[in-house]
Amino acid sequence: MGILIQQIVNGVTLGGMYALIALGYTLVYGILLMINFAHAEMFMVGAYIGLFTLKFLSDPAWGMARLGLGPVQEFFTGSVLGLIIMFIIVFIVTGALTGLLGVLIERVAYRPLRNAPRLAPLISAIGVSIFLQNAVLLWIDSKPIPFPDIFPIVTLPYGLNSLKIFIVVTSIVLLLGLDTLVSRTKIGKAMRATSQDRGAAQLMGININSVIAATFFIGPALGAVAGIFYGMYYGAVIFNMGFFPGIKAFTAAVLGGIGNLRGAMLGGFMLGMIEALAVGFLPAGYSGYKDVVAFLVLIIVLIFRPGGLLGESVVEKV
Amino acid sequence: MEKMLNVEHLSTSYGKIHAVRDISFYVNEGEIVTLIGANGAGKSTTLKTISGLIKPKAGKIFFKGENIAGLPGHEVTAKHIIQVPEGRRIFDRMTVMENLEMGAYLRKDSEGIKSDINWVFELFPRLSERASQKGGTLSGGEQQMLAMARGLMGKPELLMLDEPSMGLAPVVVETIFTVIQKLQREGITILLVEQNASLALSIANRGYVMETGKISLTGTGRELLANEEVQKAYLGH
């Protein structure tokens, strides 16, 4: 029983991260019918930006203290209130910068190919992905960089701890926020309209380029948050860290029904849960097969529901 | 009367196919003008070029004296030139109400939007019964009504209707055409593209006949209805 609860806790934590990444794939697919293979790298770059922002704000040997802002740095690291404010700043700065990078990439690498055959932007995305990985590898480091461990970890029963709770709660708040944004706000409705019929959306007076830019901001911004979580959870970042979470999140998006926002969220949590339970209940020595179990579930779901769990037979979008 | 829309020497092509070749026509304020012609004559392409969905290859499109040729679609809509597209193209997975809200996307006057929603519900009472239903669950006729109502939510000065009768039962077509005439009386200028030539000409002040990308004939609705060539080619006499 203990191990079940423990693995559910781990599954939800992992699932929150997968969901945050998965919705980036699904939003872009919903609007452009394109798989943004560079999205995994948004997650990776986000983790790095988060790491450096956090170091800048908290590490006495870095930034703030050197700029003569030592007292501010002490406030950030010295009190609970300071920590909360600091993490909020880290998330906002990281989300905004990574979001802007996403917008830039769309502008440079995808927009010129908007009317090209569908394979072209896909190849372009793979190019962007390789570029970003190598840029980080060359300009920053090829080795893992430890993530500052300033988040106070309080251990609780059943494998619960303050960090996992923080990750799960923040993920859920962000996911609910995005869901509300898409279903109720003007820009969200414009996104849905654009995904359903781009031409008709234009006839409504919707500026398609702005909507696409917004999509390319939101996805990477939330992916970056997942990147920070990942860094905090596993304690380090590395240039190729995007690969597996990227594939998993993409799988989650397909599992839920690519193009369907709630599907991506559901898929993310399901996949995290399946993986964690597989680790907990596969015979000793076989936990490496967790991914096999995850992909098996994907295959079975796709056999019976080719559009994914929440997808329609004609692929449901955003 | 003032020319609200004045198209001069407009050409549009899809790749190497010249869909519209050097056409000129105009629409006066308050008129119903119709473009008729066979499938593929370039009628829809002409509308899409005016509304900015397709870029023109050459020529000018003056709206109230200003050349709008080549503006992106959303900027054309902002000038209250509103196209109700062929095949309705409503947002299937949005409710009727949300579709209407999308039609009012550029407006900020929430009071005005509310009163216009009441107005379109009066024009199409069927829609008010279906307000919370998803667009995709409506019948073809109701979808056409929704497409028009959605267009009206953008406060059109020039309303461009692309094949509003296509695939609809005669009784629904009658409703739609009654509304089109009502809209003219309310002061909206209308450019109507139709394959149902006799119906379109019967309500139009003037008409243009398009053939393979060119305008071949023009006249008042009555003149064209009486024209032998038009009768032979489009009216099935």
SSE layout and pairings?
The complex is a heterodimer of chains A (318) and B (237).
Chain A: H1 2-32, H2 39-58, H3 63-78, H4 80-110, H5 119-139, E1 145-146, H6 162-184, H7 186-196, H8 198-203, H9 208-234, E2 236-237, H10 243-256, H11 261-281, H12 290-304
Helix pairs in contact in A: 1-6, 1-9, 1-10, 1-11, 2-3, 2-4, 2-5, 2-9, 2-10, 3-4, 4-9, 6-7, 6-9, 7-9, 10-11, 10-12, 11-12
Chain B: E1 3-14, E2 17-28, E3 32-37, H1 43-50, E4 58-63, E5 66-67, H2 73-78, E6 81-84, H3 96-103, H4 110-123, H5 125-129, H6 140-152, E7 158-162, H7 170-185, E8 189-194, H8 197-203, E9 206-211, E10 214-220, H9 221-226, H10 228-234
Parallel strand pairs in B: 3-8, 3-9, 6-7, 7-8
Antiparallel strand pairs in B: 1-2, 1-4, 4-5, 9-10
Helix pairs in contact in B: 3-6
Structural account:
The complex is a heterodimer of chains A (318) and B (237). Chain A has 318 residues and is mainly α. Chain A has one domain. In chain A, strands 1-2 form a two-stranded antiparallel ribbon. In chain A, helix 2 runs antiparallel to helix 4 and helix 10 packs across helix 11. The C terminus of chain A is likely disordered. By secondary structure, chain B is of the alpha/beta class. In chain B, the strands form two sheets. Chain B has a six-stranded mixed beta sheet, with helices on both faces. Chain B has a four-stranded antiparallel beta sheet with strand order 2-1-4-5, with helices on one face. In chain B, strand 9 and strand 10 form a beta hairpin. The longest helix of chain B has 16 residues. Chain B starts with a strand and ends with a helix. The model of chain B has no long low-confidence stretch (mean pLDDT 94). At the A-B interface, helix 7 and helix 8 of A face helix 2 and helix 3 of B.
Total strand segments of chain B: 10
User: Order of strands in the sheet with the most strands of chain B?
Assistant: 6-7-8-3-9-10
Number of individual domains of chain A: 1
Q: Assembly state here?
A: heterodimer
